[in-house]
Amino acid sequence: MRNDRQRLPGANGEGSRVSFPGVSFRTYEHPAALTALIAMKRARGFDLLLKKVHGAVGEPVVRMQHLTSAVRVGPRQFPRLHGLKEEAAGVLDLPETPELYVRSMGEVNAFAVGMDRPFLVLSSELVDVMNEDEIRFVLGHELGHVLSGHVLYQTVARIIASIGLASFPVAGLALEAVDAALKDWTRKSELSCDRAGLLVAQDLDVAVRALMKLVVGARAEEMNPAEFLQQAAEFELDATGWRNRVYKHLMPSGSHPILVLRASELDRWVRHGDYERILRSGEYEMRSEDGQATFRGGLRDHIREMKDKRDQKAADRALRGYAPPAQRGNDD
Ligand SMILES: [Zn+2]
To answer: Which DSSP string corresponds to 289-315?
Structure first.
């Protein structure tokens, strides 16, 4: 569908950006993430686990855990960040703009969290090393999670990762399969929201540079996005080979290959023309039609849109088996 985009004035008096009124999360949902979401929702005990964690922890505890050492961004505190967040929320036409906080985490990191009322947290280390365009990508990524309704699931995954699945017993059910499905979806949902980040940043180089800074932090200024994508392409080709298996077992965190693969997947989305079609022609899915796109119908549409199914499968295989970024902290 062709939609009427507008140009929004840039935050802090800079440039302007194309906005996507009424855009649906289906516009940027990665097919591998959709497949993983369906598997997760169908896993026996998923709803029970969700209710159990929600009931045991709840929104106030989550807010206390994350916000007691954080500073809230607003017109009078971090006003430039506030402007960037408002701009990003405008580009994705979010019905409600979540709160944004900054706190020191000892690493370049960002995440969206919350059970009923999602909010965003950027690490002060991220704010120190990223320029405003890169922060636009990060905010777009996190707001993508919010618009997609990911945050409750991510928060549950985060709680389980920190206090263990055994804390939430459900009588008569082994929840390991649910946990595995949740982890698989968590990893793959990043692929969708990197696309949302790109729709906000509107520059692939900026998006790749932001992913690089999540990998190496402060020294990323010396890195080159084209070289990083070349590295990603090599990894993609080798994703199912013996070298990948060695990496998988030797890498303690798994975050670095994940970020390399994420850059590669984003590059592929651009190369296949989907990004240009959305940005330049305004052809995107509308949230007003979300209700008509049934789960199965949505899946069929996505599969039809997959331009190269073999690449999708390679990415899927490569992503399978890595530790979720949440375990290390690079949540993004
Ligand atoms: Zn994310």
So the answer is: GGGGS-HHHHHHHHHHH-S-HHHHHHH
Q: How far is the CA of 331 from the centre of ligand 1 (A)?
A: 6
Give the DSSP H/E element, type plus range, for residue 272.
Answer: none
Beta strands in 198-324 (DSSP E): none
Work out the angle between the directed axes of helices 176-201 and 46-56 (0-180°, nearest 10): 80
Neighbouring residues of 238: CB distance < 8 A, sequence distance ≥ 6: 244
Q: Decide if 94 contacts 147 (C-beta within 8 A).
A: yes
d(CA 46, CA 51): 9
Tell how far the Cα of 118 is from the centroid of ligand 1, in angstroms.
13
Distance 141 CA to ligand 1 centre (A): 6
Q: What is the mean pLDDT of residues 156-170?
A: 87
Give per-residue pLDDT as tens, 274-288. 999 999 999 999 999
pLDDT grade for 242, boundaries at 50, 70 and 90: very low
Query: How far is ligand 1, taken at its centre, from the CA of residue 186, in Å?
Result: 8
For residues 20 and 199, the answer to whether their CB atoms sit within 8 Å is yes
Residue type (1 letter), 202: Q
What DSSP string describes 161-189? HHH-GGGS--TT---HHHHHHHHHHHHHH
